[in-house]
Amino acid sequence: MVWLYTVVLLLEDITSVADFRDIVSLNTLKNKFLKDIKNDTDEGAAYLQECFLSLDTKKALNTFVITFYESALVFIMMHEIGHILELDDQTCEELNIISSQSEVSLQEKKIKAEENADLIGHIYSNEYVGEPNFFNMGPILVVLAISINRSAIQIQTDHPSIKNRYESVESKIFDGKNPMDIIHTRKLLYKMNRELQNEGCWNDEDKNWWMNMIGKVE
Ligand SMILES: [Zn+2]
């Protein structure tokens, strides 16, 4: 234990910008170590772990929150811009989508336009995140946000139903990912949605609307 304390002190001397005092109180650490030596306990190491781990966790959480928030914004903006892009033949070819103009009825045109706009939003928000192994939760959070306090989540109007949009972004975030990671993310979404449901975010008739088999490994 004493060597850990010494290492922290040494690191403080070695690094020109000594920021360890922001993370660890050396006085607290010293007292804990002295107590540990006397009582054969492990409080010093636990304290160190708590200081550094909680900071790491905070940093990781912060990174996730910022990334999801930004990717959600890109998804929304590019959905709207996507409504214009998807009318252009060349863009459709480049993005590998079929324009809503190819549909016959007005209703089908509108649905297809929304699907394309979501697809374009997704493509650009993925590009913005730029990490293929990362579960880009931005688009799914946008669709969930739209669903809160909404009725008729499962009904299609001249827009695809919220349930359809949710399932479509969900299958896209699972696309090409490691099956074990998918299971983990499914669990996470389950917990999150269960919590939202318990908070009364959705009407009774839309209970469990978010449950589906996407990404389920048998
Ligand atoms: Zn739209």
- What's the SSE pattern? HHHHHHHHH
Given the helix and strand composition, which structural class is it? Answer: mainly alpha
Radius of gyration: 25 Å
H/I helix tally? 9
> What is the domain total for the residues?
1
Major sheet details: none
Q: How large a portion of the residues is in β-strands, by DSSP E?
A: under 5%
Helix content: 55-70%
Q: What's the short version?
A:
With 218 residues, the chain is mostly helical. The protein is built from 9 helices and no strands. The longest helix is centred in the N-terminal third of the chain and has 43 residues, at 43-85.
List the helices and strands and how they pair.
Elements: H1 2-14, H2 20-23, H3 26-39, H4 43-85, H5 89-95, H6 106-129, H7 138-147, H8 162-174, H9 179-198
The structure holds zinc ion.
Description:
Helix 3 (26-39) crosses helix 4 (43-85), helix 4 (43-85) packs antiparallel against helix 6 and helix 4 packs across helix 7. The protein has helices at residues 2-14, 20-23, 26-39, 43-85, 89-95, 106-129, 138-147, 162-174, 179-198. The chain contains 9 helices and no strands. It has one domain (42-206). The structure holds zinc ion. Zinc ion is lined by residues 79, 83, 114, 117.
List keywords for this structure.
9 helices; binds zinc ion; single chain; mainly alpha; 218 residues; elongated
